[in-house]
Design goal:
By secondary structure, this protein is an alpha+beta fold. It folds into 2 domains: 103 residues, Alpha Horseshoe (Serine Threonine Protein Phosphatase 5, Tetratricopeptide repeat), CATH 1.25.40; 81 residues, no CATH class. The strands form 3 sheets. The protein has a two-stranded parallel sheet. A two-stranded antiparallel ribbon has the order 2-5. A two-stranded antiparallel ribbon has the order 3-4. A hairpin with a 2-residue loop joins strand 3 and strand 4. The longest helix has 17 residues. It is globular. The chain starts with a helix and ends in a 21-residue tail after the last strand.
């Protein structure tokens, strides 16, 4: 029953997003990160559009950044083969289109793909953008087909889109390379 209620809430929020009511959508996510993560993974069956496509359509950079942080698949095409970056470009939001294209470029490896599971957050390999954070709650971060658990109070690092930086073998404080050396300048 709870899953049905959650799905209904996501559908209602998608309708608000489609109408451009992003302040209300973002407010709903502020109080419920899990709901935001569900929305970040939602795909409208009839069109293949996502919340990210809708945010790009309206040129709403704040919503786009939040969806990326929550695990949206930035390069996912809709049924018309358009990505969110394509939508932004077609609507005249060149800067947002570039930002989305940049967010979707995580290199050739599949280790940092957006999580398929809405209960996990995305990881990143954009080590040059490292900014430290302290976990305020338990975090489950997708990496290399597995999950990295970060406990409250632990330090971790994020990229410019607030995605957790994860290195070899799931290292995050700091993320390390195969040689066990830090991937960031701390």
């Amino acid at each position: 029953m709870a899953a049905v209620a959650a799905a209904h809430t996501v559908e209602l929020l998608y309708a608000q997003a489609r109408e451009g009511h992003w302040d209300a959508v973002l407010e709903a996510w502020q109080g419920n990160q899990e709901l935001g993560q569900e929305c970040a993974h939602y795909v409208k069956p009839s069109s293949g559009w996502t919340f990210l496509h809708q945010a790009a359509y309206f040129g709403h950079e704040t919503a786009c950044r939040e969806l990326i942080r929550l695990g949206a698949a930035v390069t996912a095409p809709a049924l018309d083969h358009q990505t969110a970056a394509d939508v932004a470009r077609l609507r005249g939001f060149a800067g947002l289109a570039e930002l989305l294209a940049c967010a979707g470029d995580l290199g050739e490896t599949k280790l940092w793909l957006p999580p398929a599971d809405a209960t996990t957050l995305p990881s990143s390999s954009r080590f040059r953008e490292a900014s430290p954070r302290t976990a305020t709650r338990e975090m489950w971060v997708s990496y290399g087909g597995g999950v990295v658990a970060i406990q409250p109070g632990e330090t971790y690092y994020v990229d410019a889109f607030e995605r957790t930086l994860v290195g070899w073998h799931g290292s995050y404080n700091p993320p390390r390379g195969m040689d066990a050396q830090s991937m960031i300048n701390i």
